[in-house]
């Protein structure tokens, strides 16, 4: 492994409690897209310049709020990075149910975010929402759901 100039390498020596950072640690949020949160064995550059070496078990999903590790009084925590989403504004509960059912049939997460629902944007989602007559906009926002191939039933 080569050392990159000017970077600190954080080996993340202990397996942290995945839910709670140390109460005295400084928190550094590490933004990750839905796809990035599945890549659990890799090098990652944190916003503070530390190089994080991730080595979580296969199948681990790093959801926002998960502690990646702690070193030197710093807790590295997963944050949802902004990415392209369709922000859907159903006009009724019945319409919300129809849209959620159709999106779920494409094995996509349909995540509530304030007064809208978010789904990762791509051409098939745009076509589906247009065919359903749904009110939606294409936006760049943090997405807290899973990537398109990991939908949970």
TrEMBL record:
<dbReference type="Pfam" id="PF02814">
    <property type="entry name" value="UreE_N"/>
</dbReference>
<feature type="domain" description="UreE urease accessory N-terminal">
    <location>
        <begin position="11"/>
        <end position="76"/>
    </location>
</feature>
<keyword id="KW-0963">Cytoplasm</keyword>
<dbReference type="InterPro" id="IPR004029">
    <property type="entry name" value="UreE_N"/>
</dbReference>
<dbReference type="InterPro" id="IPR036118">
    <property type="entry name" value="UreE_N_sf"/>
</dbReference>
<dbReference type="GO" id="GO:0005737">
    <property type="term" value="C:cytoplasm"/>
</dbReference>
<protein>
    <recommendedName>
        <fullName>Urease accessory protein UreE</fullName>
    </recommendedName>
</protein>
<comment type="similarity">
    <text>Belongs to the UreE family.</text>
</comment>
<dbReference type="GO" id="GO:0051082">
    <property type="term" value="F:unfolded protein binding"/>
</dbReference>
<feature type="region of interest" description="Disordered">
    <location>
        <begin position="1"/>
        <end position="24"/>
    </location>
</feature>
<dbReference type="InterPro" id="IPR012406">
    <property type="entry name" value="UreE"/>
</dbReference>
<dbReference type="GO" id="GO:0006457">
    <property type="term" value="P:protein folding"/>
</dbReference>
<dbReference type="GO" id="GO:0016151">
    <property type="term" value="F:nickel cation binding"/>
</dbReference>
<comment type="function">
    <text>Involved in urease metallocenter assembly. Binds nickel. Probably functions as a nickel donor during metallocenter assembly.</text>
</comment>
<keyword id="KW-0533">Nickel</keyword>
<keyword id="KW-0143">Chaperone</keyword>
